[in-house]
Amino acid sequence: MSDIILIEEKDIAKNNQIFDSWMYLFPGKGTSSLQYYWLAKYAAHNNLMMEMGLQFSPNGTIVKAIDETLLIPHPDADYDVLMIDKTRADQDVINLFGHFYFPKSLYHKTKKEEIEELYAMGYKNVVKHTWSCLKPVWGFPCGHCLPCRSFEKEGVKIPITGKILYNIKNMFKKKEKKKKDSHVQ
Fold first, then answer.
1. Average pLDDT of adjacent 10-residue blocks, the chain of 185 residues
2. Minimal CA–CA distance to 54: which of 22, 82, 96, 27?
């Protein structure tokens, strides 16, 4: 097993071509899809092919960007993995997802199905620590950002603790803003 290497996003040079493709494929999505740009520019900068564990999300924008017909089996892989067919995909899809493999076993599963399978395999303790949140509150998913709402919409429960902490945090933020605004006048 290799050591974990931490790389800060700011340490990876901007890639205008990949950024423009991200903006085109995910208009108005903001930070909820920014991870695809970061990963793509890292892979391109380092000339890497990386695995992206992408599960099916019927409400997800990724499904719209990567039409299943654009995926083909990787010819040299040791397991069932898909990749972008660069002969048929448009340049924006290639720019953003051309450096990735997608395990076929995940691509057709919803988040809920994936979690149920992990439970059946005995990974319940791991699953409770697995979430994607853009605005965690003291180590808990907020329950309000797009990834949190997506998890819940797809039937995956997230801890109530984060939602409660998020509401408390926002209550104090609103009080502070009100206090600050009253001093300005």
1. 78 92 82 81 93 70 70 83 90 93 80 85 81 79 80 78 79 74 64
2. 82
